[in-house]
Amino acid sequence: MRIKVLGCSGGIGGDLRTTAMLVDDDILIDAGTGVGDLSIEQLAKIDHIFITHSHLDHVTSVPFLVDTVCWMRDKPVTVHSTAATLQILKEHLFNWKIWPDFSQIPDADKPFMIFSELVIGQAVEISGRKFTAIPANHVVPAVGYMVDSGHASFLFSGDTSVNDELWKIANATANLKYLVIETAFSNKERDIAIASKHLCPSMLADELLKLTKPVEVFVTHLKPGEVQLTMNEIEIQAARWTPRMLENGQEFVF
After folding, report:
1. Pairing relation of β-strands 143-148 and 129-135?
2. Residues of the chain whose pLDDT is less than 70?
């Protein structure tokens, strides 16, 4: 299994792209602005999109992707998420006002897009690859994902604040190799981080104290303009875990 980072920033500008990861060549985890860097041929191969939550920086490319390639495909794109998130997407995005409802185009019996409800803790298996939604603690209904290739596992926190359930799952996963966890704000914005249910470096360090096994730790969702400051604070306060900044184009093979 290969996961390629298409976007991992908390904003845009220059070469910054918001959250999206390509699994092999047919699955996306989130669909932020980074999806737009794929060719039309690559976009047409996407069969499944696993969404963490409904915020625009994670879903903005879903409408464009489906609209762009629907004519090139012989089966619908499946959008996976929890019932709460899917309901938000139906009411506020695919509602004919913001964007057409592609789950009803060309008709409900043979649509270009279908919604598939996830249950937290239950794995969805696609060609031997397992995707399991795990709890996240955010201002809207949200999840992270555990991705298991059969050889090793990759844990993505999604947007989250303090989250004891994340660490219970991480510590119980025998083949866990990679942890990608958000830290959106610097320490001087700790109050904003708490209010918006994100992490800052001091909070990340406290959270990592709950991790009881050696894994490779990568930090995502840093806000533009404070990337270096935030990473410097992380490197000081969470030094024992040697966290690294996630980067566009980075690949994980496991």
Report:
1. antiparallel
2. none
Give the contacts of 140 (CB within 8 A, at least 6 positions apart).
Answer: 53, 54, 55, 85, 88
Q: What tokens does 77 get?
A: 């794109």
Entry pTM? 0.97
Residue 62 buriedness (CB in 10 A; 0-12 / 13-18 / 19+):
buried
Delineate the domains of the chain, giving CATH numbers in brackets.
2-253 (3.60.15.10)
Q: What separation in angstroms does the CA of 1 have from each of 103, 133, 245?
A: 29, 18, 21
The per-residue pLDDT for range 36-89, each reduced to its tens digit, is 999 999 999 999 999 999 999 999 999 999 999 999 999 999 999 999 999 999
Task: Give the pLDDT of residue 18.
Answer: 98
Q: What local confidence, expressed as pLDDT, does residue 142 receive?
A: 98
d(Cα 49, Cα 209) in Å, to the nearest integer? Answer: 32
For residues 202 and 162, the answer to whether their CB atoms sit within 8 Å is: no
Which pLDDT does position 121 carry in this prediction?
98
Give 21's Cβ-side CA count (13 Å radius). Answer: 27
Which residues, in sequence order, are bridge partners of residue 217?
Answer: 179
Give residue 104's pLDDT: 97
pLDDT at residue 246 in the model: 98
Question: What SS3 class is residue 116?
Answer: strand
CB 251 within 8 A of CB 4: yes
**Element (H or E) spanning 5, and its range?**
strand 2-7
CA-to-CA dists, residue 43 to 46, 152, 192, 218, 231, angstroms: 6, 27, 36, 26, 32
pLDDT value at residue 182 = 98
Closest by CA position to 106, among listed 156, 153, 70: 70
